[in-house]
Amino acid sequence: MEALFQGTMVAAKRIIYTPSDFARTNLLHLQETGELQALKPHTSSRESLASYLFFMILEGAGRLDFDGESYHLSVGDCVFIDCQKAYAHRSEQELWKLKWVHFYGPNMNGIYAKYRERGGKTVFHPKDLSGFEVLLQELFEIAGSGDYIRDMRIFERLTGLLTLLMEESWDPERSLCASPKKQSLQLAKDYLEEHYRERLSLDQLAERFFINKFYLTRIFKEQFGVSVGTYLAQLRVTRAKQLLRFSDLSVEEIGRECGIEEPAYFARVFKKVEGIAPGEYRRRWRSAIASDRS
């Protein structure tokens, strides 16, 4: 239910939302969303909330204190924080207007950790704020509607918000152009995509691109979100799945085709990525194809 609040410090339009048990257990779900206009300088502080907060500054200026840092906020700035940690935000003499959303989900801790790992910032200033504005407006409208599948629609919009946040956390200029060595990691990634069928090692890759292998390991994961070994395994398993489904090669032959000579090791790599053995993967997909044809 939409609530209008007029106090001495702020005027706010908000929806405090109660998701279904299903949404709370299985989905990204909304807790609160709204728009606030400061009437006087004021401070809001909270801690130990099972919630993640995103807000954006539409007018005015203020400050955020979070995780031992203090940030100046002005028009166009966005904030994304884990509210389990203590935080405080306050408007300044240039009174602010902001839109916000509190939300949570069973996988949010891992998603936020990935956002931070990719270089996501507590405070950032996107080139285009419109995507965030549209999503927050849609969340507000859906939460206030009588739509019988609104929890699913809210889940869709929150997923869209996190997708924008992940895109924002990816900064190719910062990640790839900080040094010539960082630039070369895209070449290393391209090399893996072209030569994954060959026998490759971290030492060979580092030597080829004149990079210390420990530096290569750390920076590759920083730039692309996965380790060199994991990325190579994903490339090989993707090719293996194609061959298991659409060729009559044996599992051992497919392993060799994907750059892994030892059948037992190929089976371990495949199962680690897919959760099942290559032979079982083939059986399930061949059964599905047979059923479709029948």
Question: Please, could you describe this protein's structure?
Answer:
- This protein is of the alpha+beta class.
- It contains 12 helices and 11 strands.
- Strands 1-2-3-10-5-8-11 form a 7-stranded antiparallel β-sheet, covered by helices on one side. The protein has a 4-stranded antiparallel β-sheet with strand order 4-9-6-7, with no helix packed on it.
- A hairpin with a 3-residue loop joins strand 1 (2-6) and strand 2.
- Helix 9 packs parallel to helix 12 (278-293).
- The longest helix is centred in the middle third of the chain and has 20 residues, at 150-169.
- The radius of gyration is 24 Å and the shape is elongated.
- The model is unreliable at 172-181 (pLDDT under 50).
